[in-house]
Amino acid sequence: LRIAALTERAAGETRVCVTPETVKKFTNLGAIVAVESGAGHAASIADADYAAAGAVLGDAASVVAGADIVLGVQGPDVGLLSGAKPGVWVAAGLDPFGQRGRIDAYAAAGVEALAMEFMPRITRAQSMDILSSQSNLAGYKAVIDAAGVYGRAFPMMMTAAGTISAAKAFIMGVGVAGLQAIATARRLGAQVSATDVRSATKEQIQSLGAKPIFVENVAGIEGEGAGGYATEMSPEYQAAQAELVSSHIAKQDIVITTALIPGRAAPRLISDAQIATMKPGSVIFDLAVAQGGNVEGSVPDQIVDRHGVKIIGYSNTPAHLPADASALFARNLYNFLSAFWDKEQGKPVLDEEIGNAIRLTQGGQVVNPRLL
Ligand code: NAD
pTM above the 0.90 mark? Predict the structure, then answer.
């Protein structure tokens, strides 16, 4: 079985889908791993390290030639796959809702596309979950970068020249990224509060030593839908949330927004009028900027100044931590393929629960119900 790993071609993508560690592990399973020369460069992994781990190096065409499985951080263009075996698997973060054209092209080319972000949120798949591994790093990085731009310190400091007060940080959306943002802001010494539409997060916020800020007494609200994800909220809830946020946000120095709803534009959480009530020098990091943004006026990959408040948003925050993000992403892919490895056939064979959840295309058709 031949596994191919290509250099990522998307602008700003620094990650790589295999590391020397996972090359060695795949090799131990009996696979040949072919890696495109330079694939690890932006993640500080040299070709020589891949070769020492047992990888075959070459250009894109030679790496893909005869491949049974092509791995990626993002999906490769279908043109790169022409030398692969018929029915080749492509396992990567395929952005199924954002890159529909590419998914259709995979179907037409007979590729079996596996979207790693559709991995079900079940216990046995946790180690295969790219959304969790990458969101965790993104939540950390958002706080670090907000602290870098903030013209003051995070912790309270009592000095001979007088006292500096602690920064107030507010985390909006307490999924995987938000929980790590709370923990990171706390470690830096900020006073942290947080909010979410899922009431289950209240306890998690408290257990991290932060203060929950929640909309109460709005009828019929439970913001948790399928798979533990958020649902879109009613207009009454949205109005109550906006009011609560308005009064709270004016007192905050740092705001990190992480709210996403799968398959939809990110919910708008902060308006320009609310930004105008914040103190000059405050910083907002919009982790949802690539999905349309939680914050009015945020621009992908720019730091925007609105009313003296700096708004940061990277379209691909994990790519700002290339080495760690690659290490975890590569392990997710290895954990996935190795969990289904059939020793007799010398290749992975997926079960129904996970296979049907992540398979987008098969036999020339788009087959995933979420895309039909
Ligand atoms: P996400 O990235 O989809 O969204 C981030 C957070 O924003 C979520 O907590 C969501 O509730 C919140 N949000 C959405 N709309 C909002 C709004 N209008 N206002 C405020 N907050 C809003 O979430 P995620 O990090 O992928 O986590 C989703 C769920 O999956 C969580 O319950 C998480 O604990 C769970 N999870 C389970 C597993 C597993 O068991 N394998 C793995 C990872 C995550």
Answer: yes
